[in-house]
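Request: When convenient, would you put together a sequence paired with its structure tokens?
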Amino acid sequence: MSQSNESYAYFALTGTLDPEMVSRRTGIAPTDSWRKGDLHPRTRRERKFDRWELASRLPRTEELELHIADVLVQLEASPIEFAALAKEHSGRMQLVGYFHEEYPGLVFSASLVAGLAKFNLSMDFDFYALWSDARDDT
């Protein structure tokens, strides 16, 4: 039996920034953050840039569109600050999908597109097709 698809989304600010400053300006704690020079916990290599992330709170089995919507709801807690920070620090909505079954497709409603535009976000898609035509149940 194959694994279920997994996906998630997160908002990221990257570049030269102080993650604590982002939290102070927005009143929100990040899901993850680091400073340039910090060691990556898995690779033990130094980080090459600063970063502040806010991830979806939904289970990874939910559709990507729902993950995006959840992150946008969180950004609404401080919309003026997040929009300004996104302009200042290359704000991005990152989508990640591990597709063990067939690719489910991706549709952005007009309201989702408007939400991304409101916060001046670029998009980055990291999708991994992990299924095989040689099924383990045949």
About this structure: Helices lie at 19-26, 64-75, 79-88, 110-118.
